Amino acid sequence: MSRYAIVTTAPDFLQRLTEAASGVLEGEIHSWLGSAFPTGAQELVAQLPDPRLLDVLILGPGVPLDDALQLADEFEVQFPEVSVLLTTTPTPSVVLSAMRAGIRDVVEPDADVAGLSVLLHRATRSAAIRRRSASLSSGDTAGSANGRVIAVVSPKGGAGKTTVASNLAVGLAAAAPHATVLVDLDLQFGDVASALTIAPDHSVTDAVHGPARRDTMVLKSFLSAHPTGLFALCAPDLPDAVDQVTGEDVSHLLDQLASQYRYVVVDTSPGLSEHTLAALDKATDYVFVSGMDVPSVRGLRKELDVLRELALIPITRHIVLNNADQRDGLTIADVEKALNVKVDIVIPSSRAVRLSTNQGAPLLENKRRDPASKALRKLLLRFAPPVAVTKSKGHGRHRGGKK
Ligand SMILES: Nc1ncnc2c1ncn2[C@@H]1O[C@H](COP(=O)(O)OP(=O)(O)OP(=O)(O)O)[C@@H](O)[C@H]1O
Ligand SMILES: [Mg+2]
């Protein structure tokens, strides 16, 4: 079994890496020490005993930086489930280039065995989760009881979480009707019901207590149906109901829903409440939403740091800059530099979004061609293959229904 591949000219680095992997990790290391470097991703994997098993590629000392970045770029496109590590001195410009090439971590050439072991663990875990996410997106749920749980979060209020979550959920429902549920975890001031124009009979509070907690069929009957084929579990009407729901309730609820639906999209309140942390703990994907202003970006940077400290490291992470207008003085490159991570999606400031909020109809309910819809569809493609989005019939208020 060959789960690790290393390209290097440095025997001492290979020795440390072998020590780091042995005993703690399953699998062997395949190295090209002493033989010609493979020049492309296809050529590299073709030389492995079993290419399907490759989890981590280490571009070690001796590989010229440009070649390493080129190879990482090819892996990002052709073998996105493989975690690529780069060995180099991490100057800010190198880290930025590495990040853009999809490199998972930058390793100092003189990293010790313990440090390398931590990095290998992280990279292996990341590869496993990416494989799982890929198989869920392709609809291959055989052997996996759980759907994909997508938590939409932001440190600041009004960043566009509900806009992003409701559009993503409607888009996913079009791709997989009756297989997507949107949960409003903004328990005090949630507005998913308003974003979708639904009048729910039941809320999250009802779902976490009583029979729905014990019986998934009852829980399903508490969901509200939307004409697009989406189900929603809305926030309670009264803000003080927040005290009746614990983090443990949220964990249990998300487990139940993920056992029944391919996609569970979770809208959250601003910041890192007990409920949001419970959702992040269960999530396969984190969608971070930020405005394109200095306080929002700083807030997101802090949030990423806190999550890292809590070991809630976003493995499948999507960074969305919303309400973005580059005329306001910040560029995407400025934001990426401040965050030290790549921005994945940029949703422009748009009147169409404001209108859709006021009308209670997410943009992706219809085939629209405006720039904000395009950006939202690009985000959707990160989760589901493209499908024709059909216009929903009528949009009057409707009651919740059973699955
Ligand atoms: N790209 C955009 N262009 C213009 N307006 C936008 C955009 N994204 C969101 N908005 C508007 O900003 C307001 C807040 O958006 P939204 O409710 O999605 O944010 P939120 O993060 O869920 O807020 P809260 O933290 O209060 O839950 C809404 O009126 C929405 O229409
Ligand atoms: Mg909201």
Q: What fold name goes in the CATH topology slot of the largest domain?
A: Rossmann fold
Kindly estimate the percentage of residues that lie in beta strands according to DSSP. 15-25%
Strand ordering within the main sheet = 9-10-7-11-6-12-13-14
Radius of gyration: 22 Å
Shape: globular
Count up the domains. 2
CATH class identity of the largest domain: Alpha Beta
Mean pLDDT, to the nearest integer, reads: 86
Number of helices: 16
Question: Major β-sheet, in short?
Answer: 8 strands, mixed
Amino-to-carboxy terminus distance: 44 Å
Structural class: alpha/beta
Please give a structural write-up:
With about 400 residues, this protein is of the alpha/beta class. The protein folds into 2 domains: about 140 residues, Response regulator (Rossmann fold, 3-Layer(aba) Sandwich), CATH 3.40.50.2300; about 250 residues, 3-Layer(aba) Sandwich (Rossmann fold), CATH 3.40.50. It is about 40% helix and about 15% strand. It contains 16 helices and 15 strands. The strands form 3 sheets. Strands 9-10-7-11-6-12-13-14 form an 8-stranded mixed beta sheet, with helices on both faces. Helix 1 links the parallel strand 1 and strand 2. Helix 6 packs across helix 16 and helix 11 packs parallel to helix 12. It is globular. The C terminus is likely disordered. The protein binds adenosine-5'-triphosphate and magnesium ion (MG).
